[in-house]
Amino acid sequence: MSDLTRLTAADLAEKIHSREVSAVEVAQAHLDRIAAVDGDVHAFLHVASEAALESASLVDASIAAGTAPASPLAGVPLALKDVFTTSDMPTTAGSKILQGWRPPYDATLTARLRAAGITILGKTNMDEFAMGSSTEYSAYGVTHNPWDLERVPGGSGGGSAAALAAFEAPLSIGTDTGGSIRQPAAFTGTVGVKPTYGGVSRYGLIACASSLDQGGPCARTVLDTALLHEIIAGHDPLDSTSIDAPVPAVVEAARRGANGDLSGLRVGVVRELGGEGYQPGVRASFEAALRQLEKLGAEIVEVSAPHFEYGLAAYYLILPSEVSSNLARFDAMRYGLRVDQGASAEEVMAATREAGFGPEVKRRIILGTYALSSGYYDAYYGQAQKVRTLIARDFAAAFTQADVLVSPTTPTTAFPIGDKVDDPLAMYLNDLATIPTNLAGTAAMSVPSGLSDDGLPVGLQIMAPALGEAVMYRVGAAYESTREPLVAPEVAR
Fold first, then answer.
1. Is the model more confident about 488 or about 320?
2. d(Cα 223, Cα 298) in Å, to the nearest integer?
């Protein structure tokens, strides 16, 4: 493995900008790494080798001409989840119904990456339309966890997380609807951040559930994640839900946190995100993390969020309802797959959706259509929205007692491929601790908290108020400063 693929994004950027190495050399090293290991990992659906090298060469030319780098991460490679539109490469959202589709425009996030001079290596695998917790629901094959190739990397953004853990990219982008950034980060020993809802533009993000979806940064260190966060965040007039407010100073906070001092901060342990259902090694890792935060000067307090226990049920009514509405656009009439079977447009639509959508997507469409149907809307969708309000109030109350809240990111470590794919409820329970943040629209991150007794990574979830990412990054960086980086043994040799 090239030494360049082992470096952090911050270190790579420093070497590129000082002309110690070229952006083309860095891009080629990561493309070589992808060629060497992605046959086993399957993190990527599309590798854009020529475009990546061309992008990198433009950064090198600009630096050689004496022009200041376009951003602190100019020339650094990145893996992009295949749910953001890209005008120069396919965008499938992991679904056959969009197989081969090349969008006519870039997502705002994609455009910001390009403007920052970041080298986009390609598009990563994901559960179809971001519906899943294992990346087993992709129409294009399963992604494997670099820690154990027989285990899942989490989902829906398993490809983005696996690319980081396998050293195929130092940066990646995911989306988080109910934990799809944080859960894969926990399973792969990487860092993943779900920003405040509206903090990163959703324009050009293929929708799963519009009131829950949020793009966010992923990396192997908290600082790298913060550097990427500041590039992709900020107001976008093309997104009606975008927050018109300054981007939190997350890079400054991460650098401050790295000194390991949390004096004066209150860390709240959520009572309802503990108890039964957690793997013993996960629970032990979390308790050790609490002791470490206390050593750093934080005050540990217990807080109660009594309505969190209803979060899973509310989420699986709200999300399918929005899925039912959003996926109606895939009708075989305008773009994507078209199966010409039947004499009418309705028959063509039905045949196309039958062939193009996978089983989990169909399951959620059916659930959502039922929940929104006449006579059931108030009983199901309406009631779920009321629970959502109560969860948001729980967060507001908890943040009067603590600066951040913490919990294990996931109840278990990465499970074997095929273990839960035929048991939807067991699969849904993976997001037990992550869903409340999405329902409330607040911010959260997962940072590695060591290994469980089975030798697999565990994540510590740190939750912050809306636009409170700075304190979250500070705590994450401080905790990270006490730990050695995790290295996946299976493919990292």
1. 320
2. 20
CA 212 vs CA 177, 191, 200, 437, 442: distances in Å: 5, 20, 12, 9, 10
Both tokens of residue 128?
Answer: 């179809």
Helix/strand/coil for 361: helix
Q: What's the pTM value of the predicted model, to 2 decimals? A: 0.97
The Cα 345–Cα 254 span in angstroms is 54
Catalytic residues: 81, 156, 180
Backbone angles phi, psi at 485, to 5 degrees: -60, 145
Phi-psi category of residue 479: left, alpha or beta, with phi > 0 → left and psi -120 to 50 → alpha: alpha
Q: What is the pLDDT of residues 445-486, one digit of tens each?
A: 999 999 999 999 999 999 999 999 999 999 999 999 998 888
**CB within 8 Å of 35: residues ≥ 6 apart:** none
Among residues 47, 66, 55, 67, the alpha carbon closest in space to that of 23 is found at: 55
Of 322, 340, 380, 415, which is closest to residue 129 (Cα–Cα)? 322
- Quick one: pLDDT at residue 342? 84
Q: Is 263 exposed, middle or buried (0-12, 13-18, 19+ CB in 10 A)?
A: exposed
Q: For residue 334, give every residue at least 6 positions away whose Cβ sits within 8 Å of its Cβ, in sequence order, or none.
A: none
Measured between alpha carbons, how far is 327 from 323 in angstroms, rounded to an integer?
A: 6
Contact between 401 and 429 under an 8 Å Cβ cutoff? The reply is no
Q: Which amino acid is at 191?
A: V
Structure tokens at 55: 């992008």
Task: Let me know if 101 is exposed, middle or buried by CB neighbors in 10 A (0-12, 13-18, 19+).
Answer: middle
Sign of the Cα torsion 184, 185, 190, 195 reads positive
Instruction: Convert the pLDDT of each residue in 358-387 to its tens digit.
Output: 999 999 999 999 999 888 888 899 999 999
CA–CA gap between residue 335 and residue 383 (Å, rounded): 35
Look at strands 266-270 and 215-219 and give their pairing.
Answer: unpaired
